[in-house]
Amino acid sequence: MQEYYPILFFLLASYSVIANDSIQTLGTWIASNKDRTPWYYLAIFASLGLIMTVSYSWYFNDGDISYGRLEKIPFQTIEWYHGIAPLALIVLTRFSIPASTSFLILSTMANNAVIGQMFLKSVLGYVVAAIVAFIFWIAVSKVLDEKKSVRDKNKKAWRTAQWFSTGFLWWSWLSHDVANISVFLPRQISFEMLLLILFFFTAVMFIIFREGGGKIQGIVLSKTNTKYVRSATIIDFVYAIILLYFKELNSIPMSTTWVFIGLLSGREVAISALSKHRKIKKLFPILKGDFWKLIIGMTVSIAIAVLVNYIASGNLFG
Predict the structure, then answer these.
(1) Is residue 296 within 8 Å of residue 97, measured between CB atoms?
(2) What does the domain layout of the chain look like in residue ranges?
(3) Which residues neighbour 189 within 8 Å (Cβ) at sequence distance 6 or greater?
(4) What is the CA angle 273-222-207, rounded to 5?
(5) Do residues 245 and 135 touch, judged by C-beta distance below 8 A?
(6) Among 174, 273, 154, which Cα is nearest to 224's?
(7) Directed axis angle between helix 191-210 and helix 39-60, to 10°?
(8) Residue 122: φ, ψ to 5°
(9) Which of 24, 94, 135, 151 has the fewest CB neighbours in a 10 Å radius?
(10) Which value, to the nearest 10 degrees, does the dihedral of the CA atoms of residues 208, 24, 152, 210 take?
(11) pTM more than 0.85
(12) pLDDT tens string 120-145
């Protein structure tokens, strides 16, 4: 049975990670296109982007699909208790809790030094995203007002820009978070294994799009104007640039969830600061709700990592 653990847990992680985290990158795009583009067209676009991104890493990194994110987390024998993390992630996703898949899954296999580096990089990502979003939306508000409809002559240009920015973001995100899925597999995989992985990834994408993004989509829809094409385009582009920066910074994995929440939080603060009718105190319940979801997700991640390491040490059953 043990020889099947890597594949089984890879499949679980594939669904749980993509269902929980991909909404960060595709959520605003889904929200703004839901009423005008059939879901299966969106699924095809996202699936093609996933196939090209994963295949690129496999081809140029000697069979490694993680973009080198796992170079400090060597492959190890997969035991039954490693499956606790992806199972817990599925549960958290169903309760709309945006757990950090990086901490939840990678912490069960990484040493304390790597976990500490992941935490510091994620906190930095949250702070940078919040500050950049605040400054950026203060500047953008001078020229963009979503209360005014897009002019007919500009609609096509904005739609095209949104699809390009979404594709750019999708690639940036995948280059980070595919590591959270492939950690259960050998660092170099065969071409046949690649094809099976891409087939399963595509099936997961269609399931998620058929569900309209799932319950995590509610976090995106709760933010101001995220369903509008211009706001969605700008959110995606800024997020992609931040992820690209941290991707090039070093190979240490990080929580893209923290970056995403930081981005939306900084943007909401900027909108409230500029609004004459929106009191700042009304903003706090939104930010507090997201903050506590992050804390819950982090707490669960740490608890599971401790449990798995405790079991691995043989203390629980022996």
Answers:
(1) yes
(2) 2-312
(3) 58, 63, 64, 65, 182, 197
(4) 145
(5) no
(6) 273
(7) 160
(8) -70, -40
(9) 151
(10) 0
(11) no
(12) 998 899 899 999 988 888 887 777 66
